[in-house]
């Protein structure tokens, strides 16, 4: 479903994504973990058509992407939840506007009902429906961004730290929701997170990124058994467990 | 005497159905220690922090029976007086750091400006100190990042820049709202060391708002648990596992584990907690 071959991204002279290749099956849930600043968000943004200059081959389903052009048909099928929900929400549009707009653009009916059931699904009380982004808490904004991405029932969901601003009980609700959608509708996830237990719960495989390069691709069983292969992968697991990191 | 004392702090916002209370009478005191605040999304953690710095947006209203910082009565300060306190004495790392940085100033200029708070230095010395600070927060290529604008850094780099800026100010009280949520576990540890160093070396008081239960349990001295505008439980950080309040128990239960194999995670029965 997502096929990336030798993706490279430069910002000026900084080479921030280096020969990244991934092959993610339909219905698979795949995690990108790794160092802060290692290029995880950049990979997702390239897939979402948010970056103009990149090189390599990227196929989403049967559509081949090219830099600078994002085929319209993909907008409905590929949705992204950005790392900074504040920045991706329009400051003068209400929650309702954010959820309604995609429905309008794509001519979907039953809008009122869809919005209400989506608010329920992400655990936002109805009183928030007509609030502006700055009138919400950080976690409430993050849930608006997740709700918006789900409105169009996409095939591929690109999630950048989707639960980092949520308390663990709300996080559990969102993770259960995502897992359920995947089982029901065969959704494909590419998820960026720093939270390794979230990967264990939701994902089948993970790629470990450092300085723009993939260090390893591992199955989730390896993570659960603390058995990652790369030095950096082991360092992350050790740090997550509060043990002094082994020196590479 | 405590560094900070808060009694019966309330924050209200007007709505169609009258005033709505989002912080409903919070009381706590803080010495030269690390206090963690955890709790439900929307429970009033950020509003509590912002109220202490006079940063509640209009038309919000703040009241308290007592809100005293180092002998200063915060309930009587006007905006001008708050502005003088903020930065050098009281500082806050806001929850969305990239949006609290100045979008038209480079990272280097912004940290440099914070440094200048402590007196003049040559341009060259200032730049050297900024680069050293970027290195301290584990930015791998400080020379490049020095010249970047906020929208050109990653989520976790933005958080580290913000921490670097606040740390050079060496305030007496720092409120850090989700300061490390976008950091990988390995960088996180080193950044927390910097905050810890300020607490140990300069006697700074630290309030750390976070959803990361393991992190606050390991890095703080004491923890407040908030639910629906109130503090529902206070405990020593090391004893979080023995917390008794049903909300706190619920939180601990819904935490996924590294060897997670459950098909669904337990969630809270919010109805039954609603009346608390
Ligand atoms: N518009 C831009 N201009 C210049 N450099 C950029 C730009 N956007 C990103 N970068 C650089 O690309 C690198 C990778 O950034 P990216 O946001 O992909 O990291 P990340 O892995 O998502 O990190 P984090 O976990 O901290 O969010 C960083 O060094 C960043 O400074
Ligand atoms: N301008 C506003 N008008 C009305 N209500 C507001 C406004 N700003 C925030 N609120 C409400 O105040 C409550 C407390 O918000 P606060 O930001 O303190 O939550 P929080 O505990 O920090 O949550 P999170 O963990 O999600 O960041 C929320 O329910 C929020 O919707
Ligand atoms: Mg990122
Ligand atoms: Mg908050």
List keywords for this structure.
heterodimer, A: 248 residues, alpha/beta, Rossmann fold, six-stranded mixed sheet, four-stranded antiparallel sheet, 10 helices, 10 strands, globular, disordered C terminus, B: 276 residues, five-stranded antiparallel sheet, 11 strands, 36% helix, 24% strand, binds adenosine-5'-triphosphate, binds magnesium ion, membrane (chain B), nucleotide-binding (chain B), ATP binding (chain B), ATP-binding (chain B), ATP hydrolysis activity (chain B)
Describe the overall structure.
Chain A: Belongs to the ABC transporter superfamily. The complex is a heterodimer of chains A (248) and B (276). By secondary structure, chain A is of the alpha/beta class. Chain A has a single domain (2-247), classed as Rossmann fold (3-Layer(aba) Sandwich), CATH 3.40.50. Chain A is built from ten helices and ten strands. Chain A has helices spanning 40-47, 72-77, 85-88, 95-105, 111-121, 138-151, 168-185, 196-202, 220-224, 231-240, and strands at 2-11, 14-24, 29-34, 55-60, 63-65, 78-81, 156-160, 188-192, 205-210, 213-219. Chain A has a six-stranded mixed β-sheet with strand order 6-7-8-3-9-10, sandwiched between helices. In chain A, strands 2-1-4-5 form a four-stranded antiparallel β-sheet, with helices on one face. In chain A, a hairpin with a 2-residue loop joins strand 4 and strand 5. The longest helix of chain A is centred in the last third of the chain and has 18 residues, at 168-185. Chain A is globular, with a radius of gyration of 18 Å. Residues 243-248 of chain A have low confidence and may be disordered. Chain B is α/β, with parallel strands linked by helices and 276 residues long. Chain B has one domain (4-256, 264-273): P-loop containing nucleotide triphosphate hydrolases (Rossmann fold, 3-Layer(aba) Sandwich). Helices cover 36% and strands 24% of the residues of chain B. Chain B contains eleven helices and eleven strands. Chain B has helices at 45-52, 79-85, 97-100, 107-116, 123-136, 142-146, 155-169, 185-202, 213-219, 246-253, 270-273, and strands spanning 4-15, 18-30, 34-39, 61-63, 66-69, 72-73, 90-93, 173-177, 205-209, 222-227, 230-236. In chain B, strand 5 and strand 6 form a beta hairpin. The longest helix of chain B is centred in the last third of the chain and has 18 residues, at 185-202. The radius of gyration of chain B is 19 Å and the shape is globular. The two termini of chain B are 32 Å apart. Chains A and B meet through helix 6, helix 7, helix 8 and helix 10 of A and helix 7, helix 8 and helix 9 of B. One adenosine-5'-triphosphate sits between chains B (13, 22, 41-47, 57, 95) and A (135-140, 165).
């Amino acid at each position: 479903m997502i096929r990336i071959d030798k993706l490279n991204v430069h910002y000026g002279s900084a080479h921030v994504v280096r020969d990244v290749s991934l092959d993610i099956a339909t219905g698979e849930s795949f995690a990108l973990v790794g160092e802060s600043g290692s290029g995880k968000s950049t990979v997702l943004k390239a897939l979402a058509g948010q970056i103009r200059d990149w090189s390599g081959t990227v196929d989403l389903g049967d559509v081949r992407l090219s830099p600078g052009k994002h085929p319209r048909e993909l907008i409905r099928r590929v949705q992204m939840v950005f790392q900074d929900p504040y920045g991706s929400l329009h400051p003068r549009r209400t929650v309702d506007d954010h959820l309604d707009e995609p429905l309008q653009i794509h001519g979907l009916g039953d809008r009122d009902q869809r919005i209400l059931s989506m608010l329920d699904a992400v655990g936002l009380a109805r009183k928030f429906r007509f609030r502006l982004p700055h009138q919400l808490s950080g976690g409430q904004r993050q849930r608006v961004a997740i709700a918006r991405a789900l409105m169009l029932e996409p095939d591929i969901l690109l999630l950048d730290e989707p639960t980092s601003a949520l308390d663990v009980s709300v996080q559990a609700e969102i993770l259960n929701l995502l897992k359920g959608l995947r089982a029901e509708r065969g959704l494909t996830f590419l998820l960026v997170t720093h939270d390794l237990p979230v990967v264990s719960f939701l994902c089948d495989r993970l790629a470990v990124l450092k300085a723009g390069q993939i260090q390893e691709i591992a199955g989730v069983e390896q993570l659960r058994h603390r058995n990652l292969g790369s030095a950096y992968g082991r360092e992350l697991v050790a740090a997550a467990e509060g043990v002094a990191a082994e020196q590479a | 005497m405590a560094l900070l004392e808060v009694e019966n702090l309330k924050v209200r916002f007007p709505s169609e159905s009258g005033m709505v209370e989002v912080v409903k009478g919070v009381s706590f005191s803080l010495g030269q220690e690390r206090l963690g605040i955890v709790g439900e999304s929307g429970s009033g953690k950020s509003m509590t922090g912002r109220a202490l710095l006079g940063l509640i947006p209009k038309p919000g209203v703040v009241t308290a029976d007592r809100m005293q910082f180092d002998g200063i009565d915060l309930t009587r300060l006007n905006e001008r007086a708050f502005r003088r306190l903020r930065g050098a004495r009281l500082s806050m790392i806001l929850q969305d750091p990239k949006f609290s940085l100045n979008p038209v100033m480079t990272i280097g200029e912004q940290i440099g400006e914070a440094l200048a708070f402590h007196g003049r230095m040559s341009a060259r010395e200032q730049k050297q100190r900024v680069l050293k600070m970027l290195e301290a927060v584990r930015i791998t290529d400080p020379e490049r990042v020095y010249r970047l604008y906020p929208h050109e850094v990653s989520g976790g780099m933005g958080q580290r820049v913000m921490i670097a800026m606040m740390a050079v100010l060496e305030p007496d009280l720092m409120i850090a709202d989700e300061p490390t949520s976008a950091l990988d576990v390995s960088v996180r540890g080193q950044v927390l060391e910097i905050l810890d160093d300020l607490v140990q070396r300069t006697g700074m008081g630290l309030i750390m708002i976070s959803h990361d239960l393991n992190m606050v349990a390991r890095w703080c001295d004491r923890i407040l648990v908030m639910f629906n505008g109130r503090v529902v439980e206070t405990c020593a950080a090391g004893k979080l596992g023995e917390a008794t309040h049903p909300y706190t128990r619920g939180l601990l239960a819904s935490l996924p584990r590294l060897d997670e194999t459950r098909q669904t995670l337990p969630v809270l029965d919010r109805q039954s907690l609603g009346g608390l």
